[in-house]
Amino acid sequence: MGSFYFGFDRTFILVIIGMLLSMAASGYVNYTYQKYSKVRNKKGYTGEDAARFILNYSGIHNVGVQQISGDLTDNYNAQTKVLSLSQAVGPSSSVAALGVAAHECGHAVQDQVNYTPLKLRASLVPVANIGSTVSIPLIILGVILGGSSLLINIGIFCFSLAFLFQVVTLPVEFNASRRALAILKEGNILDAEELPMARQVLIAAALTYVAAAVATLLQLVRLIILFGGNRRDD
Question: What does pTM read for this prediction?
Answer without folding.
Answer: 0.86
